[in-house]
Amino acid sequence: MKIAVLALQGGVKEHIDHLKSLGCEATELRKAEELDEVDGLILPGGESTTMGILLKKTGIFHKLREKIINGFPVWGTCAGMILLAKNIENDEARHLQTMDITVMRNAYGTQINSFSIEKKIDEFSEEPIPLVFIRAPYIVSTGSNVQIICKVNNNIVAVRQGNMLATSFHPELTNNLAIHKYFINMCNK
């Protein structure tokens, strides 16, 4: 099992460390041809507009989009969720448009409005897990084929649609490995 983290911009190292601590081979992805060498991909947090531009400049965009449409496992955290979204409510930009969700960028406000909570999410763990929100988006609507996994204050913050997982929060910034373990299991199927 080999999972990559898109390493064009954003929080890469923490995801790599979590994957390795679970015994998974983890690598950074910077070129389109590297997609053929991995079993899944994490789109990390960072700046979604910059990441979207870099996906196109590096030639990764079209190959990644095609692979996702054909069942390649992908998990977007924060900015990664925005990259996957079909629609962005407060931005004209569109990126991969593979997940049937509409998101609101920076929905929780600026950096100063960042927060963390603990919440039990049955899909991921029997115990409460820490959720870290940094300038986080949330999902304002989903298609009927999207499974809502978690809400915080009535806002949708975690979803799954087939081979795609998306979270508004940053599990890589905590010591909890539950969601990384969940994604590894997605890649195993």
TrEMBL record:
Any one GO MF annotation of this record: transferase activity
GO CC, one annotated term: cytosol
Matches recorded under SUPFAM superfamilies: Class I glutamine amidotransferase-like
Catalysed reaction equations from the record: L-glutamine + H2O = L-glutamate + NH4(+); aldehydo-D-ribose 5-phosphate + D-glyceraldehyde 3-phosphate + L-glutamine = pyridoxal 5'-phosphate + L-glutamate + phosphate + 3 H2O + H(+)
Key words, A-Z: Glutamine amidotransferase, Hydrolase, Lyase, Pyridoxal phosphate, Transferase
EC id: 4.3.3.6, 3.5.1.2
Alphabetized PROSITE patterns for the sequence: GATASE_TYPE_1, PDXT_SNO_1, PDXT_SNO_2
Pathway involvement of the protein, from the record: Cofactor biosynthesis; pyridoxal 5'-phosphate biosynthesis
Main function: Catalyzes the hydrolysis of glutamine to glutamate and ammonia as part of the biosynthesis of pyridoxal 5'-phosphate. The resulting ammonia molecule is channeled to the active site of PdxS.
Matching NCBIfam families: PLP_synth_Pdx2 (TIGR03800)
Name recorded for this polypeptide: Pyridoxal 5'-phosphate synthase subunit PdxT
Lineage: Bacteria, Bacillati, Bacillota, Clostridia, Eubacteriales
